[in-house]
Amino acid sequence: ERTIQQIAAGEVVERPASVVKELVENALDADASRVAVAVEAGGTEGIRVRDDGVGIAADQLEAAVAEHATSKIGTIEDLDRGVSTLGFRGEALYTIGGVSRMTVRSRPRGAETGAEVTIEGGEVGEVRPAGTPEGTTVEVSDLFYNTPARRKFLKRTATEFDHVNTVVTGYALANPDVAVSLEHDGRETFATEGNGDLRSAVLAVYGREVAESMRKVRWTPDGTEVAGIGAGDGDEPVIRVSGLVSHPETTRASREYLTTYVNGRYVTANVLREAVIDAYGGQIAPDRYPFAVLFVEVPPGDVDVNVHPRKLEVRFDREPAVRRAVETATAEALLEHGL
Ligand code: ADP
Ligand code: MG
């Protein structure tokens, strides 16, 4: 049983950033308006994610950390329809608890008191009353303490923190209406305001120079054919693109600032990054890349996101159409720069 749990852990939990991803998704699923992430030593020593979401009732705490525990699927048909919440496998807390020491502390909104439960290497302790604000706090320490082989694969603190930062940044930019903060070894890395404004979130995460260079991308087929993509009548696919892209002079030496979302989900898709880069044409110096925060919407049936629980890669049925839509949208936004 324990072994199965540890093997399963390899699928979901590869490194501290994977733990952070699951915990932040849970917080967002719980309707949080604030999500505070704090990690120690890149997350290898400790991870804490606190939210002000709906919380978990004391009598549900044990179930929440059990195998296949999910409150998010009503029926099996929900799976076919495509669920709107981020997590739906019901295995993240169970799996993380199998390879760490984890405490889940929660007080449901409006409840008088809270409770907590601790799991150490899969061993679930007693549910105890705990003083805690409304919402949920999950603390994970000593990740992989009982799986030395996996612990050995952890990289330097700075590298692990980079991965954590990428994950939290991704969710912060995708959810400008949620105040997301990140702290490393007691120092604040960034904190978004949660005021619903994407540019304000970009300002918090990337700073003023980048935020001011950003131009709005908004492209929706409105009955006219744009770049060969239909209007969405009948069987035609509807592709929508929105977000922000930077002035060609505001660049970095890495592609990692090209952040893309498909149907609200943070993904890495080379086709999207390449489409953005193509739109800039020769306006960017070699080996430099723009900033972009782009939201692409395609019909759910047109995209395969079930590639792997740990991976964020997607495949599109109509990849050329998606590529053209993103390139067109980006090029139009750049026109605002007079470019
Ligand atoms: P999943 O997210 O796939 O349902 P998890 O193992 O991540 O599975 O979480 C199990 C259950 O615990 C969730 O379905 C939810 O009911 C509860 N839960 C976990 N984290 C939170 C949170 N931050 N706030 C409220 N409920 C939570
Ligand atoms: Mg989850």
Automatic annotation (TrEMBL):
Source organism of this protein record: Halorubrum vacuolatum (Natronobacterium vacuolatum)
Record keywords, A-Z: DNA damage, DNA repair
Functional description taken from the UniProt entry: This protein is involved in the repair of mismatches in DNA. It is required for dam-dependent methyl-directed DNA mismatch repair. May act as a 'molecular matchmaker', a protein that promotes the formation of a stable complex between two or more DNA-binding proteins in an ATP-dependent manner without itself being part of a final effector complex.
Gene that produces this protein: mutL
Family (UniProt): Belongs to the DNA mismatch repair MutL/HexB family.
A GO term for molecular function: mismatched DNA binding
Tree of life domain: Archaea
Keyword DNA repair annotated: yes
GO-annotated cellular components: mismatch repair complex
Protein name: DNA mismatch repair protein MutL
GO BP, sorted A to Z: mismatch repair
Residues of the DNA mismatch repair protein S5 domain: 202-335
